[in-house]
Amino acid sequence: MTSIRPRPATITDIAKRAGVSTATVSYVLNDTPGARIPEATRSRVRSVADELGYVPHASARSLRTGSSDLVLYVQMDVVQGPLASRFLHDLSRGLRELGYTLMQYGPERSRGVKAARSWAGMRPSAVIAGDDRLTPAGIELLRKADIRVIAVGTSSGRAKELGVSTLTMDHHGLGEIAGRHLVERGCRDIASVVPGQDVLRQMGERRLAGVRSGAGVAEESGSGAGVGSGTGSEVTVRRHDMDWTPESAAELVGTWLEEGLPDGVFGYNDEFSGLLLGALVDAGVRVPEQVALVGADDVMLCQMLRPRLTSVRMESEDPEATARRIVDAVRGRAEVHLSPWTPVLVQRET
Amino acid sequence: MTSIRPRPATITDIAKRAGVSTATVSYVLNDTPGARIPEATRSRVRSVADELGYVPHASARSLRTGSSDLVLYVQMDVVQGPLASRFLHDLSRGLRELGYTLMQYGPERSRGVKAARSWAGMRPSAVIAGDDRLTPAGIELLRKADIRVIAVGTSSGRAKELGVSTLTMDHHGLGEIAGRHLVERGCRDIASVVPGQDVLRQMGERRLAGVRSGAGVAEESGSGAGVGSGTGSEVTVRRHDMDWTPESAAELVGTWLEEGLPDGVFGYNDEFSGLLLGALVDAGVRVPEQVALVGADDVMLCQMLRPRLTSVRMESEDPEATARRIVDAVRGRAEVHLSPWTPVLVQRET
DNA sequence: AGGCGTTGGTTACGCGTTTAAGCTAGGTTA
DNA sequence: TAACCTAGCTTAAACGCGTAACCAACGCCT
Questions:
Q1: Is A298 part of any domain?
Q2: Which pLDDT belongs to residue A35?
Q3: CA A251, CA A278: separation in Å to the nearest integer?
Q4: CB contact under 8 A, B305 and A304
């Protein structure tokens, strides 16, 4: 009370005041099994601790025990939107139940060894990060510090080889669903959008590949033609770059009007698709009569647009089970490789 | 190398290997001013540190120095969406430049003393949290631990009295802009939407009050009538609850069709407005001819909808300055009370 | 030769916590 | 009576780091 600088209470303070040693305080406050402390002492210590507003010093504890309860989630763009927040929520709960604390770090712009070093500094039990932030050297550094690594990304390929746990999203499968749907709907000239932006581009490429595969078009057929599976008629899938702006959407639609309108569009995303839908309506194109449109993620936006947007949603069959598996990886029990979401078509009006 | 459990290198390891004392290593690695170490020794120490993959133990350091570089941002629903992420980005950068590390904690469900205790455990320099998570007792606990508190919320009232820094959003002013705009546009029967959901409701109430004020209607005029400012004709503002679902939007529009269509709607939000727009179009209502619609936040969604959604956007005049002020609060230099966003109307087609 | 300033370090301690090991008083057993 | 338990503590040693205080050796001046 009289001290100028308020110094938080320590177990030493409690010990003095309760007339016991610090060890006793520690035993009481941690309910250490095997410690023989009579109830009278216990309650005395506890009430003093309460009175002093004691709160244990996490740093000191982790310094002593050598391990922290911290799990670092390095913010990334790989998994985003409602899916990410749902996932984060489940994960956070699962970890908390096991005594871990999930902390989000970022937005992070550094990568590789430099990033790994800054993560390792806080000696977390595990790091969950986008695989674009991880390099072999960085992973090695973390492993040496006995920190588990979980790489999140589009493809588990590289990370898997490095022996870290992975969490992937099946963008290819998502694209396949969209491609197949469009072909079944009768589309023969499909346009697939790839975002120009850095991180999204990779995912766009994978989704594009998926659309091709779903539409029964050979991988490398650029803007060429392939044979539609089953139907026998020709299906083409062309790739188009677009930025996340209304102007870019209008420009792309302009290009289509010149070069010939596709009859089916996979907009990469609900958001990209929303912009495209607006631009198409502006151009007087009737959706879905002239152009069918499929988005992805199934966000609320789909239900705001008229016509309502058809979308491919990533469904998690059992979020809790996923969280549990990740917790396993965090504890170092196992190296897990998960891809816990299944793409499902949500058909609406476009 | 031969150790089973990989133990991260410490300065002691480096010291041994470089043939110097730990003090020297510390001096070198921290570039301690005033320490007289010749370049030869410096580089030797550094290379050994590199070789061993040394990374300083954040806990040990903060234990020693008594202060951590950690700033805790407790996730909340009060400030959300694109505004929040932009803000977080600026803040994170500003803090990093000053040597702080911003960490997001949450989603947090506990509150009061219990929450404060768990935050205090990691001895951060400051905690930034929604004011709905803070109680006087919790704030007191944090203050005793010499941790700065920044309360984020709709109204700085309560928190200000408790002597913590505040960061508020002028929801009332936002509503005012919307209300004034609708009246100027000729609307006389205005409907203002308030979300049913917990956290959003408070903000909805404030925005509603703003709409009333902007429309020149007395505060407590429920669904009664007031005198339009300047025009002399009567303006009414009615309040409507709605959930964030398409069904709820349709229901509300249904109510309007029965009770009489308003000629102006403030949808609380772009998202709520988007749902309403869809429902209105479904009902054959022409927007904006029959009903003018104003959202808020000015997210990309506005440019996807047709007609394009008019919105009130919160503009930050100087994000960096804001970040700097907050950093001041974090350092304990000053108790700041900020409301760094100005509502601005972005007129589009609705 | 003695005093002094500078260079290049080292020693020693404390931060708050956990935990293995020891110690004491009283009771039980041989 | 001595040896031996056991309950109920206490002592002391870490953990990794920062830093004030100290120290030896050397060059230089008087």
A1: yes
A2: 87
A3: 12
A4: yes
Paired with A96 in beta bridges are none
Higher pLDDT pick, A84 / B290:
B290
If asked whether residues A283 and A189 sit together in one domain, one would say: yes
Neighbouring CB atoms inside 10 A of B338's CB total 18
Structure tokens at B45: 């120490």
Residue B32 main-chain phi, psi, to 5 deg: -60, 125
Mutation test of the interface with chain B: which of A5, A29, A59, choosing the one with the most B Cβ atoms within 10 A? A59
Distance A35 CA to D4 C1' (A): 22
* Same domain? A151 vs A71: yes
- Tell whether B149 and B255 lie within a shared domain: no
Number of domains in chain B: 3
Q: Are residues B204 and B268 in the same domain?
A: yes
Residue B203 is inside which H or E element, if any? Answer: helix B198-214
Asked if residue B277 is part of any domain, the answer here is yes
In angstroms, how far is CA A170 from the centroid of its own chain?
Answer: 12
Across the interface, whether the CB atoms of B68 and A59 are under 8 A apart is answered yes
At A232, is the pLDDT very low, low, confident or very high (cuts 50, 70, 90)?
Answer: low
| Set of chain A residues whose Cβ sits within 8 Å of the Cβ of B305 | 278, 304-305
- For B101-147, write each residue's pLDDT tens digit: 999 987 778 889 999 999 999 999 999 998 888 999 999 999 888 89
Q: Are residues B191 and B310 in the same domain?
A: yes
Q: How far is the CA of B2 from the C1' of D23 (A)?
A: 38
Give residue B348's pLDDT: 96
State whether B245 and B330 are in the same domain: no
**Which phi and psi angles does A272 have, rounded to 5°?**
-60, -40
Residues B41 and B45: their CA atoms lie apart, in Å, by 6
Q: Which of A304, A308, A348 to mutate to test the interface with B (most CBs of B within 10 A)?
A: A304
In a domain, B123, yes or no: yes
Structural domain contains residue A3 = no
Instruction: Tell me which residue in A7, A92, A278 faces B306 most closely, judged by beta carbons.
Output: A278
**Global pTM value:** 0.85
Q: How far is the CA of A307 from the C1' of D30 (A)?
A: 100
pLDDT digits (tens, 9 = 90+) for B32-63: 988 889 999 999 999 999 999 999 999 999 99
> pLDDT for A165-193, tens place per residue?
998 889 999 999 999 999 999 999 999 99
Task: Round to whole Å and give the CA distance between B303 and A189.
Answer: 27
Chain B environment of A306 (Cβ under 8 Å):
278, 281-282, 306
Q: Are residues A289 and A248 in the same domain?
A: yes
Q: What is the CATH number of the domain that holds B34?
A: 1.10.260.40
What range does the domain containing B285 cover? 172-314
